[in-house]
């Protein structure tokens, strides 16, 4: 029988009680091999429905940490049971984190200088959202999409942005080297202002999944396209 409060489950070390992390289904990994790739994380969480993997780097080098977003809270409960299991010769810590921590890592990804800052527990219902988020970021003509269904294709993405001026030849669905989709895509618009306007579609759905949008750059899109071709 499904428990009415899954966040009371005791999983991993020191998991008897958890602060209220909210319903965003994300975990943080620590202790990853420095040559870890997203495909290794998919294997580590085999059988679970992963929406996004963000490998954290510091000064261009792997930090041994990652954030993994799942399709729902119960997937997180199962993922936490893999705390301290081995990946190669190293055991990996799997623990809860805040949605804010994940967003901070995403926002810092382009700057290449991410530092880990664990958010303090919320003071109460009136806790201000420090990431008011994407409005404060600088926009170019490019948006990055996360959380796409793995079957999503270019026509579906163009349809998603119906009413916005998308450059149809500049829509790139990101794939891993083995050809499987990562759940990410890059979309270029005619102007930076049009890209900002298209952010109105943030957290709207394609199929069964809601899609998150982030400001990006042509350079990041080119790097992703180059990795897809390797």
Describe the structure.
The chain has 230 residues and is an alpha+beta fold. The protein is built from 6 helices and 10 strands; from the N terminus they run E-H-E-E-H-E-E-H-E-H-E-E-H-E-E-H. The protein has helices spanning 38-44, 73-80, 99-109, 154-160, 192-198, 218-229; strands at 26-30, 50-58, 61-70, 85-87, 90-96, 142-146, 166-175, 181-189, 204-206, 209-215. The protein has a 5-stranded antiparallel beta sheet with strand order 2-3-1-5-4, with helices on both faces. Strands 7-8-6-10-9 form a 5-stranded antiparallel beta sheet, sandwiched between helices. Strand 2 (50-58) and strand 3 form a beta hairpin. The termini are far apart.
Summary of the model, kept short:
This protein has 230 residues and is α+β, with helices and mostly antiparallel strands.
